[in-house]
Request: fold
Amino acid sequence: MENIELKRFWEKVKEELIGSLPESVHPWIYSLEVSGYDKGVLSVVTGQAMARDWLKKNHSSQMNKILQTISNDSNARIHIIYDENAAKKIKKEVEKIHKKEIEAKQKELAMENLNFMQSNANLNLKYKFENFVVGANNRFAHDASLAVAKNPAKKYNPLFIYGNSGLGKTHLMQAIGHYILFHTPDLKVKYTKTDDYINDFISNSRKTNNSIENMSKFNKKYTNIDVILIDDIQFIESKEKSMERMQHTFDKLYEKGKQIVITSDRIPEEIPKLTDALTSRFKSGLMVELMPPDLDTRLEIVEKLANYNDIAADDDALKYIAVNFSKNVRELEGAFTKVCAYAELNNKSITLELAREILKCKENIDKLTFDKIADVTSSYYNINMSDIKSSSRSQKISNARQLSIYLCRELTNESFENIGNYFNKKHTTALYAYEQVVKKIKTNVETSTAIKEIKQALKVI
Reply:
């Protein structure tokens, strides 16, 4: 009997078996596969030993009668064979189904947790790792954040992300939350802005009715979770009671082995009046910095924005935006949105000419570097560039060094740590130099004039 004919014959036999045998054995019949028909013996294969034994013991006679009727052969019989390969195949199928069931359950839990997070913390769904553009300026912070998301409380606890406004701190923080929600949905995640935490604390502490109960609810709200994401911690500065409560929240979570992620626009030492206790706690894990994106990263960001929103734009127009908006990602996205909105409302194509017309930028041709700033400043003071990076304390060199540090901070947005390293100084020394110049600008005409003339030489004004 040919294969096609054999399969058709078996389907007919199987249909009769299903119609005649108890419903409890139907799954076993469905799983049988025909392997041959020779001299009245119909051989079928199963990967379930129990199916073979049960059918032989309890239904062999009935199955044979059905085959004899269909084949018109009174001696015909069904021979059930147990096959290990078929058993392995069934096992894989079962595991595949089980895996799908687990994934479906995880997805269901993730959605429940996501709904909880959305209603309690206003997590923004667009902030995920998938749409975070990684560049030299943020690679370390991104990799550390992803490591935390994959292993909450196992690596880098607490994780302290810092950098100027608009560089992606909130994006990375919320990406951690989203990743955990979808990959470890049994964990409870809470995102809170520091201002909201402070207001919540003040509100509960001022309630006169059941004050103990109110504070108990507040504590549970922020400590009966597995991952806490605290945004813009710098706003807690000088608020003594709130800092005490934050320390309590931190300690409770840390003691229970829960993950803590914090963002700030500066390192703990630079947050005025932050307690030593909180400073030491925030520094006890891993601190990572976000820097302004370089040109390649900025270009990738605007290209990704265009692709994501299905917007056609000339390459030159995108490059113009990327070149001229270098301070932070938020400013870059704002410029891109402005050009797109104008083009859409006026039914125009996004070209280089249109971008120039709308944004009216003074184009940045040369990227400012520490070397260039130090070189121009040393020339202004008529000293060697090496003097600025030396340990000399002469007034002339000291003034040149302080102005160089000030300009490096103002014109590049680099961290005081990186600036300090360049000038062979500690970051606290770089911060002090910057603050001294800020004070002098208000009272010292010579200093403000020097800064203006150096900026002119650097072609930034």
